[in-house]
Amino acid sequence: xxxxxxxxxxxxxxxxxxxxxxxxxxxxxxxxxxxxxxxxxxxxxxxxxxxxxxxxxxxxxxxxxxxxxxxxxxxxxxxxxxxxxxxxxxxxxxxxxxxxxxxxxxxxxxxxxxxxxxxxxxxxxxxxxxxxxxxxxxxxxxxxxxxxxxxxxxxxxxxxxxxxxxxxxxxxxxxxxxxxxxxxxxxxxxxxxxxxxxxxxxxxxxxxxxxxxxxxxxxxxxxxxxxxxxxxxxxxxxxxxxxxxxxxxxxxxxxxxxxxxxxxxxxxxxxxxxxxxxxxxxxxxxxxxxxxxxxxxxxxxxxxxxxxxxxxxxxxxxxxxxxxxxxxxxxxxxxxxxxxxxxxxxxxxxxxxxxxxxxxxxxxxxxxxxxxxxxxxxxxxxxxxxxxxx
Length: 390
Known about the structure:
11 helices, alpha/beta, Purple Acid Phosphatase, chain A, domain 2, six-stranded mixed beta sheet, globular, 33% helix
């Protein structure tokens, strides 16, 4: 069975205030063309269809058009909600839409109920696990802990239990939206950390033949059977070196991945990160290749130059982001402060602050629990707002 694995469309998102709707429409044209050209048997969309819980009307219209085109192509599509989506909104009329071959999996309760397709070698059960916010689904899944690993493990237990009831030789595919250990993140994914646990081990997905992941924006192969498709477009300059693709997966008769091919997505405009003193950037002939790119420029001038954006735009008219990182001496206090923060997460920085204001004494166990609880409360509140669309 030939599967086309994609994710993280983020319909409605812009890139540093540049609208991307036309580029997203071009991607969806490309997706439908790929389905037809490569005789795809099923399309897998692993979450973050929209960029926010209440998407703009133009994004909804684009999504509606895409659904119609996929249905007209006669190719089943399985789609899950991600952490950017409002699961309830995305799943509206899912039962009716399913009659057209578009299977929206947005309700965690359906984790163990697959979409069953068949080819010449028998059945393939496709299980859609929507993004699972631990604080909201822990009780529903009977998970012992409120963490991503606990709730995903519980959901996968339901998958394996259902799979055990199916005829021998039934192949299995899981769609999930999660940060799996070993994956490489970029700046444009919304953090899905709760309780300080930001990733789940790949072993959570043991027992199935292929895992189509969403959330991380770079295309990645964690194992031959566990892959991220990545986003079809770049959504931050941290993705400058990404090759934006979809996975074309051939699932063999025995469930192994017989072939995996990356299908390139259209690039609206290349990205470039340039760094140096302003005068040097304007004069360097080696940067000519970036003159038509979307540019992020980091200026290292010791003193901020006059009208830097206007001057950069004369040579690089598509400069979108300007960063100042002045050259400093080793003795500069700002250098040592930046080094102290490097590689530290929010909780560690907060603990360091407590130690700083108390003369070197950091928080004890009880205080640390209160501190971490405050971070988690903010996370849960944000997740509930996302679900409700507030």
